[in-house]
Amino acid sequence: MAEAGKKQNKIYVVYLQQVLDVTDFDHPGPKENITDNVGKDITELFEDAEHSNYAIELCQKYVIGQLADNTGKLLQNDFIQMSKEEEELHKQIENKIDIKKPLISQVKKLTNKEFMFFVKRPRFMESHDGI
Ligand code: HEM
Fold first, then answer.
1. Residues framing ligand 1 (Cβ under 6 A)
2. What residue ranges define each of the domains in the chain, with the CATH number in brackets?
């Protein structure tokens, strides 16, 4: 994930299994808390620093996607609320798409609705670019 960010000159960090793009975020705390943790999971550090509710809400503003496991399946997370319908759709999508393989030909297999849900929750895996 750090690599995916580096390629695009972006600063990505992980918070509660969500990928945050904090490239344009000017951290009011020590800047190195972010710059030392590019591509890393900052959940524990973030919580240890006892951030305000405002800071927690701010994190949501920077979410660009979710972490996936090493097969590309979205990781479950209490933080992310999905309707039953959305959960079912993601199961269907995971059966049709292998995000480690070239995507264009695979995306053709999706219905319009599946495609919309797929792009709405971009997936990120270690050492792969995200979609
Ligand atoms: C990337 C997501 C992060 C966001 C959106 C964020 C946001 C903020 C905000 C808004 C504040 C001002 C005080 C508050 O409202 O709580 C703050 C302060 C602070 N943050 Fe973060 N932070 C992030 C990551 C981190 C990380 C990873 C660390 C620690 C390793 C950290 C350590 C601190 C510290 C120590 C302060 C207090 C500074 C002071 O009071 O002098 N932050 N952060």
1. 13, 20, 22, 25, 27-30, 33-34, 37, 42, 45-46, 49, 51-52, 54-55, 58-59
2. 2-67 (3.10.120.10)
